[in-house]
Every structure is written in C-alpha cells, then in structure tokens.
From TrEMBL:
Gene3D superfamilies: 3.30.530.20. It comes from the Bacteria. InterPro entries: Polyketide_cyclase/dehydratase, START-like_dom_sf. This is SRPBCC family protein. Pfam families: Polyketide_cyc2 (PF10604). It comes from Mycolicibacterium hodleri. The lineage of its organism: Bacteria, Bacillati, Actinomycetota, Actinomycetes, Mycobacteriales.
Length: 150
C-alpha cells in the first residue's frame, strides 16, 4: 500500500533566496535528485507550466510529464506527475541561521493503479521503492545544502 506522504527535511545555512534559486531552477533537478536525469520546463516557472522528465533506476529509464501546481517565490514549489498523480513539493521556511527545506511527495488520492502495478513488477514493490524515494529525497536535500552553503 502506497504511503500518502513521503517527506525529508534539512536545515541549510543559507538564505531562503539562495535556496530558492537552486530549487526553482528545474534544469538543476538532475544535479540534486539521484533518480531524475532530465526535467525540462515548457515555459516560465508558474502554475500550469508543463515539464517533461526522464527518470532512472539502475538500467531502467522511464519518461514522465508533470505540471507546475504552485509557485510561491522563496516559499514553495510544487508539481503534479501526470503518470501517477503524485505531487512533489519543496517548501522553504526561514530559520534563525538560514532555511529549513522540506521535500515531499504527496499521494493524497493514492497512486494510480497502473503506476503501482509497474512499481510492483519492475522495481521490487511499492514499500521498497518508497524507501528508495525517501533515500533519494535525503540525498537531494544534502546536495542542495552543499551547493547553497558553498
């Protein structure tokens, strides 16, 4: 059974403006995410903008598409993946020493059955894949932190 919410967070010693510059540049997503190999936006960063994405796990590659659902500069960026109905988001919160960055994957209406079938068949099952996604979130946040603090 897919979890409705997967999440990771990290504190970064950099301003929300500096962190926003990194997470809001979708072309940088492959630099942060171990699974994302391409994220190409077709238009400016605003709700409704579509993206085409390529993901990779070992020798398996798969395309997805998404639509930006929320943009609040220096606060939140979110997009819905069309193939599985999940919403990925980055939320920034100012702290005394910089920024708390939270990455989430919401599946409040569940993941599409075809997506779960493919994950169960090709990727070792939903629970394992979701653990891998959280590990990937933690890796992404660590990479964003290193870039923002350098």
């Amino acid at each position: 059974m897919a979890q409705p919410l997967l999440q990771a967070r990290i504190d970064i010693d950099a301003s929300p403006e500096a962190v926003w510059a990194l997470v809001s540049d979708l072309s940088l997503m492959p630099k942060w995410s171990p699974q994302c190999k391409l994220m190409k936006a077709f238009g400016p960063l605003r709700p409704g903008t579509r993206t085409v994405n390529v993901n990779r796990r070992n020798y398996l590659f798969w395309p997805t598409s998404s639509r930006i659902t929320e943009v609040v500069p220096e606060r939140k960026l979110a997009f819905r993946v069309n193939e599985n109905n999940t919403v990925w988001s980055y939320e920034l919160e100012p702290t005394a020493t910089g920024t708390r960055l939270t990455e989430s994957r919401h599946a409040e209406n569940g993941v599409k059955p075809v997506s779960n079938l493919l994950v169960n068949t090709m990727m070792g099952g939903v629970p394992n894949f979701e653990l891998e996604l959280v590990d990937g979130m933690n890796a992404s946040l660590s990479r964003i932190k290193a870039a923002a603090e350098s």
